[in-house]
Specification:
Largest sheet: 5 strands, antiparallel
Radius of gyration: 30 Å
CATH topology of the largest domain: Neuraminidase
CATH class of the largest domain: Mainly Beta
Helix content: 10-25%
CATH architecture of the largest domain: 6 Propeller
């Protein structure tokens, strides 16, 4: 079993204050935005960027990058990359720099931090490292024994927790974890097929040491020790029961007493859940499915989203710190306890992210650390480096931005108040949620529907066995309780579906990509062609009852080819548009929803169809390509 082990070197964080340079920054901003003199502002910004006040320096670099964009992308890109690399705790500035990198075509490097290959034959992707990074405990899969590797020399020493080889016994060690003082190793012991039993064991870190058995219960089918407490008195363990449910438990090494901290049902998706003690021993971080599956193994339609949680070490309280839809997993603490690193596929690939922590709660939004880390099993952060095994070697963002005229208000940048990966955002009617599309994991041409709550930060991905949705914008129903979007089914066909956001039910509505929805959400007005001739041009408007899917023609167009349809805010009239190929004009008209009162309201000479339309809230004005008409 050969795995590749690589390392990221993380940058140290410092803080400070610099009043004089704060004033210089304001002067530089004024030069850029009031006088348009970026050239004179740039040396001032470069000086401020040397400030010991990290927030001030990061802000100066962001303005410097904007000034450099006027001279070319290369210098600006390097400045933005510096912000992301060196100022990981300045989450707002990092997010803004990431957005500028995306706008400039992304970073030219494959990752923010350098990777260094430690070994390509380390033998186990569930190994554990000493705090100085020198020693690695792992399963020696040639024998099934626990072993220690000296990372400086490459020398491997079996501890003989298992004597002999696989020919002698099919018992084996798995998930070994080193104690903080390196004197003990906790691990799961599988007795093999003959006895079909598992135990939690602890062995001295010495040759031929005698193993103790703190926990031995036939009610349990697996133990996965994941971290020792900083005082070395207990181990946090995932215990799997006979019904395949899991528990997070704390096991006292002295007497083997077990305290269940949390019952997880079937929420643990993979070994990457990785409960990990904070350096002060007060908290435990882990990842898990946000919604418990309906069965085990999970059904294809069960939500697969994994979030990051932090609980008190005694299990008395818990906080959900990463709620983004998708797979957010493999959380580990930094040595100072101020950040949690985790991997996430929110960009359509697995990247390494960081979230700042204080008193067991997240501070600000997660920031990107390094791209394309792959499926990484973390071995914690040691000596300023992130150790992990790697099984495999352009993001699209939705931003909510504070509006600031001309890009700034009183010297403050217009800033993103929320940022998350996705496309085609649509606000809910009450303005409390956003629906958008996100790449389906593993397929860049397919998408999933995601709904993001602006009040709580919660996200939910709506999965279905019917197929995947395209990248077109979803449409909210007026009640805000459901959404309409197209689904590409497995047989290649497609249709529009109504998705109940509470229960996740998908109800087929039919095929009508061009439609307008009545205010009561009961009727869709659609443009149709002759049903007997699929190659004909649309020539009629029909009303579709969404509960019964019954369709009734209400109006025949005076000329075929209508391309757009809008419903007035009061639900009484339709506004339609179609290009007239003969006269080379685009025609606009209105008609009541019962088919009466037709009148043409405008036409113009154009070669195309005039672009998308939009109505003002009072329904009196129709906007298209920057032109407003009654």
């Amino acid at each position: 079993m050969t795995k590749v082990l690589t390392v990221f070197v993380l940058t140290a964080i410092a803080f400070g204050a610099d009043t004089a340079r704060e004033q210089k920054l304001q002067q530089a901003i004024n030069l850029m935005e009031s006088k348009g003199d970026a050239a004179k502002a740039m040396p001032m910004l470069e000086d401020v960027a040397h400030s010991s006040d990290r927030a001030l320096a990061a802000r100066a670099l962001l303005y410097l990058g904007q000034a450099q964009e006027r001279q070319g992308a290369d210098k600006a890109r390097a400045t933005y990359e510096r912000i992301v690399k060196e100022f990981g705790n300045q989450t707002e500035m990092v997010a803004a720099a990431q957005q500028r990198l995306i706008a400039l075509g992304g970073s030219r490097s494959s990752g923010t931090f350098a990777k260094r290959l430690l070994c390509s034959d380390c033998g186990d992707d569930e190994a554990d490292f000493s705090s100085d990074g020198r020693w690695m405990a792992f399963t020696h899969w040639d024998s099934g024994d626990v072993a220690i590797r000296d990372m400086s020399t490459g020398q491997v020493k079996r501890l003989m927790a298992k004597t002999g080889t696989w020919k002698d016994s099919d018992a084996f060690v798995e998930t070994p974890v080193l104690s903080p003082d390196l004197r003990q190793i906790a691990y799961c012991w599988d007795t093999g097929e003959k006895e079909d039993h598992v135990q939690l064991r602890v062995i001295p870190n010495e040759l031929n040491g005698k193993a103790r058995v703190p926990v031995d219960s036939r009610e349990n089918t697996w133990y996965e020790p994941t971290a020792w407490s900083p005082d070395g008195r207990s181990v946090v363990v995932i215990i799997t029961k006979k019904d395949h449910t899991d528990q997070i438990a704390r096991v006292a090494i002295s007497d083997g007493s077990v305290r269940v901290l949390k019952s997880m049902d079937w929420r643990f998706a993979t070994v990457w859940s990785h409960p990990d003690y904070s350096p002060d021993g007060q908290y435990i971080v882990y990842s898990a499915r946000a919604v418990n599956p309906s069965k085990t193994p999970p059904a294809p339609t069960d939500p697969k989203d994994e979030h990051i949680y932090v609980m008190a070490a005694d299990g008395s309280s818990e906080t959900e710190i990463v709620k983004t839809a998708g797979i957010n997993t493999s959380p580990v603490w930094t040595p100072d306890g101020k950040h949690i690193l985790f991997t996430s596929d929110r960009s359509g690939r697995m990247d390494l992210w960081s979230v700042a922590m204080q008193n067991g709660k997240a501070i600000g939004s997660p920031s990107l650390v390094s791209t394309e880390i792959g499926k990484a099993f973390p071995m914690r952060v040691h000596g300023g480096s992130y150790y992990y095994t790697q099984r495999q070697t352009g993001a699209e963002y939705v931003n909510i931005v504070d509006y600031a005229p001309n890009g700034a208000t009183q010297g403050r940048l217009a800033r993103a108040t929320e940022s998350f990966v996705g496309i085609r955002p649509m606000w809910s009617p009450d303005g409390k949620s956003i629906a958008f599309k996100r790449h389906h994991p593993g397929n860049t041409n397919e998408y999933d529907l995601v709904v993001h709550s602006l009040e709580t930060g919660d996200e939910r991905t709506y999965l279905t066995s019917l197929g995947t949705t395209g990248n077109g914008a979803a449409r909210w129903f007026h009640d805000g309780k459901s959404i309409m979007t197209g689904i590409r089914r497995g047989d290649g066909s497609g249709a529009f579906y109504r998705i109940d956001l509470k229960i996740g039910e998908f109800k087929e509505l039919g095929d009508f990509p061009t439609y307008a929805l009545s205010p009561d959400d009961k009727t869709a007005y659609v443009i149709r062609r002759d049903p007997k001739d699929p190659n004909s041009v649309p020539d009629r408007i029909s009303a579709v009852d969404l509960s019964t899917r019954q369709e009734k023609p209400i109006f025949s167009l005076p000329a075929p080819g209508a391309s757009s349809l809008l419903l007035s805010p009061d639900g009484r009239a339709l506004v339609l548009k179609w290009p007239d190929q003969k006269s080379k004009t685009v025609r606009f008209a209105r008609v009541n929803v019962d088919g009466t009162g037709y009148r043409e309201i405008f036409n113009m000479a154009r070669q195309d169809d005039g672009g998308p339309m939009a109505l003002t809230k009072d329904g009196r004005w129709n906007y298209f390509r920057g032109i407003a008409r009654r």
